[in-house]
Amino acid sequence: MKRDVATTKLVKPKVADKDTSLSIVKAAAILREIGNSSEGRTLMEVVAATGISTTVCFRMLSTLEAERFVDKEAATGRYKLGFGLIALTRHTLHQQLIGTLTAKMLADAARELSDVALLMVPDGEKALCIDRKEGDAPVISLGTHIGSRQPMHLGGGPFAILAFSPDDFVDEYLARSLEKKTSRSVVDPKKIRTRINEARARGYTVGDEDIYEHLVAIGVPIFGPNGALLGSISVGGVKPRYTEKRIKEVGEWLVAKARSL
Known about the structure:
Blueprint: E1 2-3, E2 10-11, H1 22-35, H2 43-50, H3 54-66, E3 70-72, E4 79-81, H4 84-89, H5 92-95, H6 97-113, E5 116-123, E6 126-133, E7 149-151, H7 157-163, H8 167-174, H9 189-202, E8 205-208, E9 215-223, E10 229-238, H10 244-259
Helix pairs in contact: 2-3, 6-10, 7-9
Protein backbone atom coordinates (compact mmCIF):
# COMPACT_ATOMS: atom_id res chain seq x y z
CA MET A 1 0.00 0.00 0.00
CA LYS A 2 0.92 3.62 -0.36
CA ARG A 3 -0.71 6.93 0.49
CA ASP A 4 -2.91 8.68 -2.02
CA VAL A 5 -1.17 12.04 -2.66
CA ALA A 6 -4.37 14.02 -2.20
CA THR A 7 -5.48 12.34 1.03
CA THR A 8 -4.24 10.13 3.85
CA LYS A 9 -6.14 7.11 2.51
CA LEU A 10 -3.99 4.09 1.71
CA VAL A 11 -4.16 2.52 -1.74
CA LYS A 12 -2.90 -0.83 -3.01
CA PRO A 13 0.77 -0.84 -4.06
CA LYS A 14 2.00 -1.28 -7.59
CA VAL A 15 4.67 -3.84 -8.47
CA ALA A 16 7.28 -1.08 -8.33
CA ASP A 17 6.54 -0.70 -4.60
CA LYS A 18 7.80 -4.19 -3.69
CA ASP A 19 10.57 -2.75 -1.51
CA THR A 20 8.18 -0.50 0.44
CA SER A 21 7.64 -1.21 4.14
CA LEU A 22 3.89 -1.33 4.72
CA SER A 23 4.28 -0.59 8.42
CA ILE A 24 6.18 2.63 7.73
CA VAL A 25 3.67 3.65 5.06
CA LYS A 26 0.87 3.23 7.60
CA ALA A 27 2.75 5.10 10.32
CA ALA A 28 3.41 7.97 7.91
CA ALA A 29 -0.28 8.12 6.97
CA ILE A 30 -1.22 8.27 10.66
CA LEU A 31 1.24 11.09 11.35
CA ARG A 32 0.04 13.05 8.32
CA GLU A 33 -3.58 12.70 9.37
CA ILE A 34 -2.85 13.90 12.90
CA GLY A 35 -0.77 16.75 11.50
CA ASN A 36 -3.63 17.84 9.25
CA SER A 37 -5.58 19.15 12.25
CA SER A 38 -4.59 21.79 14.78
CA GLU A 39 -6.83 20.03 17.31
CA GLY A 40 -5.44 16.54 16.80
CA ARG A 41 -7.38 13.39 15.97
CA THR A 42 -9.10 10.63 17.95
CA LEU A 43 -8.34 6.99 17.26
CA MET A 44 -11.56 6.51 15.31
CA GLU A 45 -10.98 9.67 13.26
CA VAL A 46 -7.57 8.37 12.23
CA VAL A 47 -9.08 4.98 11.38
CA ALA A 48 -11.80 6.58 9.25
CA ALA A 49 -9.37 8.85 7.42
CA THR A 50 -6.64 6.30 6.70
CA GLY A 51 -8.56 3.06 6.28
CA ILE A 52 -6.21 1.30 8.71
CA SER A 53 -7.93 -1.21 10.99
CA THR A 54 -8.71 -0.12 14.54
CA THR A 55 -6.44 -2.73 16.11
CA VAL A 56 -3.44 -1.92 13.92
CA CYS A 57 -4.02 1.82 14.23
CA PHE A 58 -4.19 1.66 18.03
CA ARG A 59 -1.01 -0.41 18.17
CA MET A 60 0.83 2.02 15.92
CA LEU A 61 -0.38 5.05 17.84
CA SER A 62 0.80 3.46 21.08
CA THR A 63 4.23 2.89 19.54
CA LEU A 64 4.41 6.42 18.16
CA GLU A 65 3.42 7.72 21.59
CA ALA A 66 6.17 5.71 23.25
CA GLU A 67 8.66 7.25 20.80
CA ARG A 68 7.24 10.74 21.57
CA PHE A 69 6.20 11.26 17.95
CA VAL A 70 2.61 11.71 19.15
CA ASP A 71 1.05 12.68 22.47
CA LYS A 72 -2.37 11.60 23.73
CA GLU A 73 -4.52 14.03 25.67
CA ALA A 74 -5.92 12.25 28.71
CA ALA A 75 -9.04 14.42 28.86
CA THR A 76 -10.10 14.13 25.21
CA GLY A 77 -8.34 11.03 23.92
CA ARG A 78 -7.06 13.08 20.99
CA TYR A 79 -3.64 12.40 19.54
CA LYS A 80 -1.40 15.33 18.63
CA LEU A 81 2.06 15.51 17.12
CA GLY A 82 4.73 15.10 19.78
CA PHE A 83 7.88 17.03 20.56
CA GLY A 84 9.97 14.05 19.47
CA LEU A 85 9.33 15.13 15.88
CA ILE A 86 10.97 18.49 16.55
CA ALA A 87 14.13 16.79 17.76
CA LEU A 88 14.06 14.50 14.74
CA THR A 89 13.69 17.29 12.18
CA ARG A 90 15.84 20.05 13.65
CA HIS A 91 18.67 19.47 11.13
CA THR A 92 16.46 18.98 8.08
CA LEU A 93 17.25 22.30 6.39
CA HIS A 94 20.99 21.91 6.98
CA GLN A 95 20.98 18.40 5.52
CA GLN A 96 19.13 19.42 2.35
CA LEU A 97 20.97 21.19 -0.47
CA ILE A 98 18.29 23.84 -0.94
CA GLY A 99 18.50 24.79 2.74
CA THR A 100 22.25 25.41 2.71
CA LEU A 101 22.14 26.99 -0.76
CA THR A 102 19.48 29.57 0.06
CA ALA A 103 19.99 30.38 3.76
CA LYS A 104 21.71 33.72 3.15
CA MET A 105 19.43 34.74 0.27
CA LEU A 106 16.30 34.07 2.32
CA ALA A 107 17.58 36.13 5.25
CA ASP A 108 18.75 38.92 2.94
CA ALA A 109 15.38 38.98 1.16
CA ALA A 110 13.47 39.53 4.40
CA ARG A 111 15.94 42.13 5.67
CA GLU A 112 16.49 44.14 2.48
CA LEU A 113 12.95 43.93 1.09
CA SER A 114 11.30 44.21 4.55
CA ASP A 115 8.48 41.73 3.90
CA VAL A 116 7.97 37.99 4.45
CA ALA A 117 10.33 35.65 2.58
CA LEU A 118 9.38 32.01 2.04
CA LEU A 119 11.37 28.96 0.96
CA MET A 120 9.22 26.31 -0.73
CA VAL A 121 9.84 22.89 -2.28
CA PRO A 122 7.68 20.64 -4.47
CA ASP A 123 5.69 18.09 -2.49
CA GLY A 124 3.57 15.97 -4.81
CA GLU A 125 1.18 18.28 -6.62
CA LYS A 126 1.64 21.07 -4.07
CA ALA A 127 4.38 23.36 -2.79
CA LEU A 128 5.51 22.92 0.80
CA CYS A 129 6.83 25.84 2.85
CA ILE A 130 9.98 24.74 4.69
CA ASP A 131 11.32 28.07 5.94
CA ARG A 132 10.04 31.59 6.56
CA LYS A 133 11.77 34.84 7.48
CA GLU A 134 10.03 38.10 8.41
CA GLY A 135 11.20 41.61 7.60
CA ASP A 136 10.47 44.87 9.40
CA ALA A 137 7.55 46.18 7.33
CA PRO A 138 4.91 48.02 9.41
CA VAL A 139 2.39 45.29 8.61
CA ILE A 140 3.61 41.69 8.38
CA SER A 141 1.27 39.32 6.59
CA LEU A 142 0.21 36.04 8.16
CA GLY A 143 -0.31 34.00 4.99
CA THR A 144 1.75 30.87 4.46
CA HIS A 145 3.72 29.38 7.35
CA ILE A 146 6.26 26.59 7.68
CA GLY A 147 4.53 23.29 7.01
CA SER A 148 1.79 24.84 4.86
CA ARG A 149 1.12 23.28 1.45
CA GLN A 150 -0.27 25.37 -1.40
CA PRO A 151 -1.43 24.57 -4.95
CA MET A 152 1.32 25.14 -7.49
CA HIS A 153 -0.82 27.17 -9.88
CA LEU A 154 -1.29 29.90 -7.27
CA GLY A 155 0.83 32.36 -5.30
CA GLY A 156 4.37 33.57 -5.89
CA GLY A 157 6.51 30.71 -4.56
CA PRO A 158 4.26 27.80 -5.54
CA PHE A 159 3.72 29.14 -9.06
CA ALA A 160 7.46 29.67 -9.51
CA ILE A 161 7.88 25.93 -9.00
CA LEU A 162 5.20 25.07 -11.56
CA ALA A 163 6.23 27.72 -14.10
CA PHE A 164 9.83 26.55 -14.23
CA SER A 165 9.12 22.81 -14.09
CA PRO A 166 9.60 20.63 -17.20
CA ASP A 167 6.78 20.88 -19.73
CA ASP A 168 5.65 17.28 -19.20
CA PHE A 169 5.11 17.98 -15.50
CA VAL A 170 3.18 21.15 -16.34
CA ASP A 171 0.99 19.22 -18.81
CA GLU A 172 0.23 16.55 -16.21
CA TYR A 173 -0.48 19.13 -13.52
CA LEU A 174 -2.84 21.20 -15.65
CA ALA A 175 -4.82 18.09 -16.60
CA ARG A 176 -6.04 17.91 -12.99
CA SER A 177 -8.96 19.70 -11.42
CA LEU A 178 -7.46 22.96 -10.14
CA GLU A 179 -8.32 24.48 -6.78
CA LYS A 180 -9.67 28.02 -6.55
CA LYS A 181 -8.87 29.81 -3.27
CA THR A 182 -10.07 33.37 -3.92
CA SER A 183 -12.02 35.21 -6.59
CA ARG A 184 -8.67 36.08 -8.20
CA SER A 185 -7.38 32.50 -8.43
CA VAL A 186 -6.62 31.58 -12.05
CA VAL A 187 -7.73 28.00 -12.78
CA ASP A 188 -8.16 28.06 -16.57
CA PRO A 189 -5.29 25.94 -18.02
CA LYS A 190 -4.92 28.20 -21.07
CA LYS A 191 -4.59 31.30 -18.91
CA ILE A 192 -2.14 29.51 -16.63
CA ARG A 193 0.02 28.56 -19.64
CA THR A 194 0.05 32.22 -20.67
CA ARG A 195 1.17 33.18 -17.17
CA ILE A 196 3.87 30.50 -17.30
CA ASN A 197 5.25 31.88 -20.56
CA GLU A 198 5.27 35.40 -19.12
CA ALA A 199 7.05 34.22 -15.96
CA ARG A 200 9.70 32.34 -17.93
CA ALA A 201 10.34 35.42 -20.05
CA ARG A 202 10.90 37.79 -17.12
CA GLY A 203 12.33 35.25 -14.65
CA TYR A 204 9.82 35.62 -11.81
CA THR A 205 6.18 34.96 -10.93
CA VAL A 206 3.53 37.18 -9.36
CA GLY A 207 0.70 35.96 -7.16
CA ASP A 208 -1.88 38.72 -6.78
CA GLU A 209 -4.44 37.92 -4.06
CA ASP A 210 -4.89 34.43 -5.52
CA ILE A 211 -4.19 32.44 -2.33
CA TYR A 212 -5.02 35.04 0.31
CA GLU A 213 -7.03 38.20 -0.22
CA HIS A 214 -5.06 41.44 0.21
CA LEU A 215 -1.68 39.69 -0.17
CA VAL A 216 0.74 39.79 -3.10
CA ALA A 217 3.85 37.64 -3.56
CA ILE A 218 6.70 37.48 -6.07
CA GLY A 219 8.61 34.23 -6.55
CA VAL A 220 11.69 32.88 -8.32
CA PRO A 221 12.81 29.30 -8.96
CA ILE A 222 15.88 27.89 -7.23
CA PHE A 223 18.05 25.52 -9.24
CA GLY A 224 20.80 23.22 -7.99
CA PRO A 225 24.36 23.00 -9.37
CA ASN A 226 23.24 20.39 -11.90
CA GLY A 227 20.38 22.55 -13.16
CA ALA A 228 17.64 20.59 -11.39
CA LEU A 229 14.73 22.60 -9.97
CA LEU A 230 14.94 22.44 -6.17
CA GLY A 231 12.18 24.84 -5.13
CA SER A 232 11.49 28.56 -4.90
CA ILE A 233 11.96 31.68 -2.83
CA SER A 234 9.23 34.30 -2.67
CA VAL A 235 8.71 37.65 -1.02
CA GLY A 236 5.29 39.04 -0.27
CA GLY A 237 3.16 41.34 1.80
CA VAL A 238 0.03 43.43 1.90
CA LYS A 239 -1.24 44.63 -1.47
CA PRO A 240 -0.91 48.42 -0.87
CA ARG A 241 2.89 47.93 -0.69
CA TYR A 242 3.01 46.22 -4.07
CA THR A 243 2.68 48.78 -6.83
CA GLU A 244 3.75 47.76 -10.35
CA LYS A 245 7.07 49.50 -9.74
CA ARG A 246 7.75 47.61 -6.50
CA ILE A 247 6.71 44.28 -8.02
CA LYS A 248 9.27 44.81 -10.79
CA GLU A 249 11.98 45.89 -8.33
CA VAL A 250 11.39 42.92 -6.02
CA GLY A 251 11.21 40.51 -8.95
CA GLU A 252 14.48 41.74 -10.43
CA TRP A 253 16.17 41.64 -7.01
CA LEU A 254 15.11 38.02 -6.54
CA VAL A 255 16.17 37.00 -10.05
CA ALA A 256 19.63 38.53 -9.60
CA LYS A 257 20.16 36.87 -6.22
CA ALA A 258 18.90 33.48 -7.41
CA ARG A 259 21.22 33.53 -10.42
CA SER A 260 24.19 34.23 -8.16
CA LEU A 261 23.64 31.13 -6.01
